[in-house]
Amino acid sequence: MRKLIVGNWKMNGLRQSADALVRGILDGLPVGADVGVALCPPATLLASVADMVRESPVEVGGQDCHPEASGAHTGDIAAPMLADAGARYVIVGHSERRSDHGESDALVRAKAEAALASGLRPIVCIGETAEQRRAGEALAVIKHQLAGSLPAFAQADALVVAYEPVWAIGTGDTATPADVEEVHALIRTALRSAAGDAGSQVPILYGGSVKPANAGELLGTAEVDGALVGGASLKAEDFLGIITAAAALN
Ligand code: PEP
Fold first, then answer.
1. What is the span of the domain harbouring residue 162?
2. Domain tally for the chain?
3. Is 73 considered catalytic here?
4. Per-residue model confidence (pLDDT) at position 155
């Protein structure tokens, strides 16, 4: 499967810095690399980033969406609005949304279904906390989150799953390739049993302190189809280093 590298800018970026970052990424993209690349800027920058990448292979995504298509929800953004601004993807269920906003698996599933209904590819995030891993509960937590968060499988070909151990996000710690392999294998099995052959085609991304120095090893691990990248997506050189590592594996 073609690797997919997604940059999650989180709550970072003003117009000037975003322009420079996108220009740097576009200028340095490895020529002919068969790697999918998507940028998820804050909503305020989505349309302008989409304009900048229009003639390139780079796509854009939102960082969250509301489960409803419109209505009285001050401050929220609906999936059709993201699509209208030029998005192709939307991250749902990121651990920062789950912890900052108390998002449940059921809400994450509703958001993923709203994304699919608007023609967006939801990137459904799951991952255990440090406490859960220490208690030996990581696999059970992942199974439970998958069962509760994944949308109905009518459109499995549009789905993306991201395994992001909470303790590895923004900390500099990464899961070992053996741990990543174990969790990704479990996710693949769950996808296959829910969606049959289509479950084999769902990209499973790893996220959690991915950087150029560890990208080759993580992306080369079985069933790792790409990366969801936070901090290292804010520097063109680092993000390009991860894309280059992915391209080298093809
Ligand atoms: C993320 O925000 O999804 C993430 C993985 O962040 P970082 O790469 O900074 O750990």
1. 4-247
2. 1
3. no
4. 72
- The rounded Å distance from CA 71 to ligand 1 centre is 31
**Cα–Cα dist 221/123, whole Å:** 20
Q: Could you tell me the pLDDT band of residue 219, with boundaries at 50, 70 and 90?
A: very high
Nearest CA to ligand 1 atom 2: 230
Q: Whose CA is closest to atom 4 on ligand 1?
A: 230
pTM of the model: 0.97
Residue 153's pLDDT is: 67
Residues 6+ apart with CB under 8 A from 189: none
Secondary structure of residue 249 in the 3-state scheme: coil
Please report, for the domain that includes residue 181, its CATH number.
3.20.20.70
**pLDDT over 70 for what percent of the chain?**
99
Q: Which residues line ligand 1 (CB under 6 A)?
A: 8, 10, 164, 169-170, 207-210, 228-232
Catalytic residue among 103, 164, 184, 223: 164
State the chain's mean pLDDT as an integer.
96
Q: What is the residue with the minimal CA distance to atom 8 of ligand 1?
A: 230
Instruction: List Cα–Cα distances, 119 to 44, 82, 155, 247, in angstroms.
Output: 21, 10, 10, 27
